[in-house]
Amino acid sequence: MISSGPDIVVYYPIVFNMDDKALEQYINQSIIEETQKLINKQISEMDTPIVSMVGTFEIKNNQRDVLSITLTNYAYHDKAAHGMTYIVSLTFDLEKGKKCELADLFKPGSNYVERTSELIKEQIRVREISLINEFTEISPNQQFYIADKTLVIYFQLYDLTPYVFGFPMFPISVYDLQDIIDEEGPLGRMAQNN
Description:
This is DUF3298 domain-containing protein. This protein is α+β, with helices and mostly antiparallel strands.
């Protein structure tokens, strides 16, 4: 779908032909709400008018009853030094009919924050990523998406790294977390070899 105005074009996905029409409506409403939140964030970011805005999306995973998408919004304000981009992701467990938070991917009571944080620290070291803020650990509801057999933890621009670095993304194999993932959840289904 496209929503447009003067120099504003925002694309977002819709799901259709699902057997569960209530779930289909819930997913589409969630996508529309998050798309609008991104637009509102860009508008309220600065007092100057927006010169241009482009919203896009990517389907990161649509298999094994797991739908994971990212929504990205770039806007340039009048007289700004550069534009700003934000990204948000939505992951749905279609089998259970719900939107997933990061904690939903792991066994209850597991130390997923500590485990994923340690794997990210190692990637920062190995990839020699320059940080503007020290990384200690992810938040319990850190932003993420699922791409096949990978959990991708990400941060917004300026959260950890300089603007020029882009979005810091940390792909983590489901097999590196296999002992703590919920085997009946999205990552558990991704880890299966069938």
